[in-house]
Structures are given as C-alpha cells and as structure tokens.
Sequence to fold (339 residues):
Amino acid sequence: MRINTRLMIATLAAASSSPLFAQGSLSIYGRLNTSIERQTVGGNSVLAMVNNNSRIGVRGSEPLGNGLEAGFALEAGFQSDNGAGMQADGGLDFGRRSEVYLAGDFGKLHLGQLNASSYMNVADYGVLDQPNHDTGAVSDALYYVVLGSANAISYTSPAMHGLVIQSGLALHEKEPGGSQKNSHVVSADWALGAVSLGAGYSRNAGSREWGLRVHYTIGEFQIGAYVQHANDATGFFCNNGAAGCGKRNNARVSAMYTLGATELVIGYGMAGAWSQVADSRAHQLMLGCNYKLSMRTKLYAIYTRLSNQANVNYGYGFINAVAFGQDASTVSTGLRHEF
Fold:
C-alpha cells in the first residue's frame, strides 16, 4: 500500500504540536575542535592535523508532573580530522555519555555511562579547563584519574546555599571469584559569589585520589588552582610494572584575562615523585590565546611543554607516544565550533 508522503508529513507535524508532544524537549548538540600542530616528542617533530575531543550528542527531557522530570543523553566522540568514529574500525559509539535520569525536588538520579564528578569539580572547572577546554595535547596531563564511569549510579543533590554534592557507584559486574571491585566517587561544588570551592574523592580497587580546588573571578580576571593526592596500585603511570607507583602529590594553577573578544591564558602544573619510583617528577607549562568570533566559535593559538623525569611518561593526545623520560611539546592553532 502506498502512503501519501505529504499527508504523512502533515500528520506528524500536527501530532508534534499536540499537548502530549509539546511537553517534552529534544535537541542535538556537539562541537568540532580541530587544530594544526607542530608536535615534538623526544626531539622528533611532526606536523599534523589533530582532533581535540570533538563530539556529537542528543538529549531530551519530559516533565512527569508533581515536580518530576525524566530525561536522557547520548554522546559520541568522533575524529574531526577524518570523520571517523572512535572505535577501532572507525565506528561511532556512545562511550562518552549514555545516561537516563530522573529529577525532582530531591535532586537528580543518573544511570549509565557518566562523567566522573571528582574530575569535573576539581580539575575541569572554570579557567582550569583552559586554554582549550582540557582537550588534546594541550590538556592537563598530570591530573590522576581513578574512576571508570561505565555502569554508574550517580546522585546529584539540589543546591543548598550554593553547595551541590554528587556521589556515585560504578558497578564492575565481576564474575564469581573475580578480583575487580566497584568504584566509588563523591564530590562537591560550593559557589560563594566570586569564589567557588570544589572537592573530590574517588576509589577503584587499590587506587584512590582526592583533590581540592579554589576558583576566583574578579571582573575580567579568573584564577583557579587545585591540589591532588593520589595512591596508585596499577603501575600504569610510572616505570614500575604491576607493582604500582605508590603515593604522589600534584598541583596546578591557571589564570585568564579577558580583553574584549580575546582571552589570554597561562597555566602551570607540577607532579611530585611517586613514593615507590625514583626520578618520577614532571612539570607542564601552558600558554594560550583564544579569540571569540561569536558565542559558539573561536580561534586559538596554544603552546604547551611537558618535562618528564626518567621514570614517567606524562603526555596525552600526541601523535607519537611519549616514552619514559621524554619531554613533549606542541605549538597549535585551531578552530572550535559548538552547536
């Protein structure tokens, strides 16, 4: 049976304007962030076009009455330099975010693949995610991430005099006799006018971290800083195999001055030595200039340099992997657009 296309479109348009459909909302969002970079790792340089965590997502919500709301979000990363997805075969998945939630006066309950709130409330806040929104080779390479965010149950409290608390549990779904354990996270953000304070704690098996953050805004000037303490049991972050790295402290400070459409950014991070590994300190310098073409589009020019001692290999987003003891740097210029 043939269907009249015009009639079907008219019917759908009429249905979508009915009170039942009008109650909900649905939107597509995302960003493309692409740069041209001269990356240098261990003295070897490469000129490359680089994707900086580009993504596309869809989200929606529906009021349920009595102050309740249900909603969802699906978010996928992709390679803005060649159009491929992030899977090994170039396919697209929703590994960045895949959640359903229920919200009300009690707060918000999330289920699914989520962002770790300890990271969001400590290291990815305000000026601390500049000069390129903590993405690509110019991102903060020294912050210690513990928590995996898959299979997560998370709760966000309502604001209480500016204080919002988040807590979560990531289920590892271990088989009987397995060694994996569930991950835990708790964090807080406290907005006090020009000053904002943050804290976070996360734990996964034998690895754990806690951090404290302060952020201050006065006119066109912003400054933010955090300190973090980590205890690593994996050995992934140092040259010590599966024995683990031990304990370590790190800190970062970033500042930004806005002059019209221009943002000038400077940041410095320091990672102390791991307690079980000698020669394991590192430093990172970031310099950047953003120029806003509109509220959603900006050009940028950025420089970062990582200095690694012999038994660490900090560095994220480089075309050529950073080996132990190698320094790494990049000079980049790029375009970022949000939709």
In short: The CA atoms of residues 156 and 166 lie 4 Å apart. Residues 1-18 have pLDDT under 50 and may be disordered. The two ends are 40 Å apart (CA to CA). Helices lie at 5-16, 19-22, 117-122.
